[in-house]
Write a structure and sequence with these properties.
about 70 residues; mainly alpha; 2 helices
Length: about 70
C-alpha cells in the first residue's frame, strides 16, 4: 500500500468516527436533550473524535505531498 493510500485509509477511519459522533449530537439536539449525562458524553466523544482528526492532520509523520490529494 502506498503512503497516500495509508493516508486515505486513516483519514476515512477518523472521519467516519467524527461523523458518527457529530450525528449523535445532532440527534440529541433534535430531541431537545442538550443537558445531562447523555449530552455531556456525546460532547466529550465528539470533541475526542475532532481532536483525533486534527492531531492526525498536524502529525509530523504526515509528510505527504498534499498535491497528491487533489
Amino acid at each position: 500500500m502506498s503512503h497516500i493510500d495509508d493516508f486515505r485509509f486513516d483519514s476515512q477511519k477518523l472521519l467516519v468516527e467524527l461523523d458518527a459522533t457529530t450525528t449523535k449530537m445532532m440527534v440529541l439536539v433534535a430531541s431537545k436533550k442538550v443537558t445531562g449525562p447523555e449530552w455531556e458524553d456525546a460532547v466529550k466523544d465528539q470533541k475526542a473524535a475532532f481532536d483525533d482528526w486534527i492531531s492526525f492532520l498536524n502529525s509530523p509523520e504526515l509528510s505527504i505531498d498534499r498535491s497528491d490529494l487533489i
